[in-house]
Design a protein that fits this description.
278 residues, 11 helices, 87% helix, mainly alpha, globular
């Protein structure tokens, strides 16, 4: 018990930082899934990591560089879409971010370790500034989805109806893109590129596969994400493992177990129905 309290005292800020992001990321992931833009999460995250490394090499705060790179990519999205197919744009940006990260870590002294941390996650070292960033991200994301979530659905599902109301779609789309880019830049600094992507991809993917109701999905997705995050943080902390890979592993195991559990439940219901019929 004493050891547990000591660990809690040392790591409560990183734990809370990750928990806030674990609640927000799957909510954004649901809208990304609806728009079929999961590659955007990887692209923004990888470019954010490249921007953070570049800022670190120049002596600036890494978070500032990560935000600048991710927001620049989000701002350039719509102009680039006019010249490139959307399906190819985000993979291209992801490859660009990956190549910049690799070149920066290979050629700049002192950056290699930071590059590994950004890809695998460095949640244990998250300080007050990251906690403040995660809190602001959750507040901004919650306000945007509360006030513009319905418009975001209409713009994607019924664009003609949205335009018939005399409303312009680009502020909603661009606002969401900038929000996702900023949140991912913050998430990458603590959860890592793959950890952030796992949270924004896997819980919404599972929820949409089993729950066709959108409002229920908005509740269940962050709950699943928070439970997976809590388990991963506990396992990684007490077994001295890197957090990002542990989080991705827990989410992948959840993704494999839920379909099996659903199939067993379905078979049981079918068996009960047959017994009742007999």
């Amino acid at each position: 018990m004493t050891e547990w309290l000591l660990q809690l005292e040392l790591f409560w800020r990183p734990a809370l930082t990750g928990a806030l992001l674990a609640i927000l990321l799957p909510l954004l992931g649901l809208s990304l899934r609806l728009r079929q833009e999961y590659w955007a999460a990887l692209a923004y995250g990888q470019l954010g990591a490249a921007g953070a490394l570049g800022a670190l090499a120049l002596g600036y705060p890494p978070l500032l560089g990560g935000l600048a790179a991710s927001l620049a990519a989000a701002g350039a999205k719509h102009p680039l879409e006019k010249r490139l197919l959307t399906t190819g744009l985000f993979p291209l940006l992801f490859v660009l971010g990956w190549s910049l990260c690799q070149l920066l870590t290979a050629n700049l002294p002192g950056v290699e370790r930071s590059g590994a941390d950004l890809f695998g996650g460095q949640l244990y070292f998250a300080g007050v500034e990251m906690l403040i960033g995660a809190t602001l991200a959750l507040v901004a994301g919650g306000v945007f989805l509360w006030r513009k979530g319905r418009d975001l659905l209409l713009v994607h599902l019924y664009p003609a109806h949205f335009q018939a109301q005399g409303r312009v779609a680009w502020p909603v789309r661009t606002g969401f893109d900038l929000l996702v880019a900023a949140v991912l830049a913050i998430a990458v600094m603590s959860l890592g590129v793959m950890g952030a992507f796992a949270l924004i991809f896997i819980p919404p993917w599972l929820v949409c596969a089993f729950l066709p109701n959108w409002r229920i999905a908005l509740i269940v997705a962050p709950v699943l994400s928070f439970l997976a995050y809590t388990l991963a943080f506990t396992l990684a902390l007490f077994h001295d493992q890197p957090f990002g890979p542990m989080l991705a592993l827990v989410l992948c195991v959840m993704a494999l177990c839920l379909p099996v559990a659903a199939l067993m439940r379905r078979e049981k219901d079918d068996s009960d129905s047959r017994c009742a019929a007999e």
